[in-house]
Description:
The protein is α+β, with helices and mostly antiparallel strands.
Amino acid sequence: MKKHFLTFVLLNLMNAVIQDLPAQKATSNNTTNATDNNYYRDLYSDTWVGTDALGRSMPGITITGPVKKDHSRVVGIFYITWHTDNNAALKSPYSGDVTKVLAADTNARLDAKNDQWKERSYHWGEPEMGYFLSKDEYVIRKDMSMLADAGVDVLIMDVTNAVRYWSEWDTIFTVMQKMKAEGNKVPQFCFWAFNGPVMTVVQDLYDRIYKNDKYKDLWFYWDDKPLLLYNGMPHVDANGKGVQNLNPHFDSAALTDKNNPHYNNPDFTNIFYTDYTRDIKNTFTLRTMWWGYHEWAGKRFVGTEDNWSFGYDMGNAKVKSTSPDSLVSLHNGRKEEAAVTPAQHPSSLVGKSWSRAFGEPALNSHDMPGETYVPWLKKTVAHPEGYGIYFQERWNEALKADPSFLYLNDWNEWTAGKYQPKEGTFDFMRRKNSYFFVDQYNAEFNRCIQPMKDGYTDNYYMQMAENIRSYKGVRPVPELKGLSQIKIDGSFADWNTVKLEYRDTRGDVIHRNHKGYGGTYYNDSSGRNDIITSKVAVDNKAVYFYAESDKPLTPSSGNNWMLLLIDADQNPDTGWYGYDFLINKNITDNKTSTVMRYDTNGKDWVKVAQVNYRYKANQLELAIPRALLQLKGDAISFDYHWCDNPADLKDVISLSTSGDSAPNRRFNYRCIWKKD
Ligand SMILES: [Ca+2]
Ligand SMILES: [Ca+2]
Ligand SMILES: [Ca+2]
């Protein structure tokens, strides 16, 4: 019953998507053969420290162990590109947000025709970067930078419903190549096709991209060939049977003319494909990827040879009772792929707060979970949807199984399709209802890892980054040794003796200027000084800080200019979001700045000292007395963070999502210094 239900829904979803999209054509012939894997400037992001909003700290080497090298460990994530330009033309002001609809009028919950429901397709909530479109370069750059920082290796590009997003892909891959040319690490990509005329779709991908070596430097290889996730039984998909796969290379002469180079070759003589072509079979490493059903198309599916899952059907008793190790797909009998998702579907009532032991908790009038026990925290909390209960359970199982590929679903889907048949009611969220949602619905029922606006912000991103470290292991935090002789004089040659660099992304100050859904328009011109390198030096009296920007620094009179935040006691519970000192918030003149300490009682920054600073061209230096920071002795360690032109210091999100942060977002550099 459920399978039919899902099939019906997927069919509708596919039709809706196809109908909504204009015909798209390839717009670029950008080709490169560069395959050098050492193209990037290593940011050492696996050595950054940080604590998320729930108090979880990024695990270091003492917890994860060193980088694991006994077998490959690759992380892929489902990357959606259906936020196409035509969505800009939806009704303005944009009102397609389920969370906001239900907040605006509680009557909308049980009434499919309530005035608040103005669209057919919705966002389940608002992304941190707003209702963005897939071709927004600002968003693409943030995505790639965040994913690379977290250790994600490959984007799994969505072609699951046969729609080819040529224009979006051209924009995204071109931006990724630009970032690489700037020295930044970015993930690679592969495609995942499944529903519809999948043999034709896959041939199209081959003909337009792989055959032409297009974006070759970004191809993800698996078993020495580019990986292609596909449908190994192409005559069966979520829509049933009977899809015809038109052969674009059909050549009637190949049927009759013995001199035709393709004579008698079924890749050219069939009007409709009956199998994938030799080019597909020879070019790619092929794996079927589909939902982790116990059985699919009449055969055992989850946990079998060369059948990857994009999530596990935990609502099914057989899948739930299968040992987690046996859910992992195999290749030549070895554990190859495990799926890790923040939740499943609203239609199966397996949300973010579902656990094996307790199932899905009771839901309130807005279908949000009530107080729920969080196993990893060993506590009961009021808003469990932000705590990653389901996500961590899947992570723990996948980490234990330790396959060579971890698939995460998803980064940025956001879309919640509302289905409203003309008559009848449906069981939806344990109530009879005149509409339903299938893939995403609200903050409890969605699978997005990309940060949301307000709510639980970046909890899922941080949880992902924390667990990827456990999966892969990390490098030790580089250590600084010896006493330095630095003068704060505006002459920077003395810093050449300090070799240890703390690095940040180059090019992450680009301004945003792009349309979004339903007439929204996004501007962000806060990017100003692009911080790329920081250094620290220590002598008996002071800690010296150095920062370097990509281009000459703007005048220090500017708003929130080159702020330095220090967590001197490495305690996230003391200070402002852990930061005990703030430097440069008040700059006296071109040579004098101030150090402020966070007053926990008054909940404000208080000036405690004046310090010397100098800046010239793209370099900046300052010194802070060690006594002031309470960093004494022959070995010290503290965490620090530079940022330039944050919108405000309201919270750690506002601090780190505008201007530039070094390191990115809420991460910090850890300085470990020893005299000898
Ligand atoms: Ca930067
Ligand atoms: Ca602190
Ligand atoms: Ca940055």
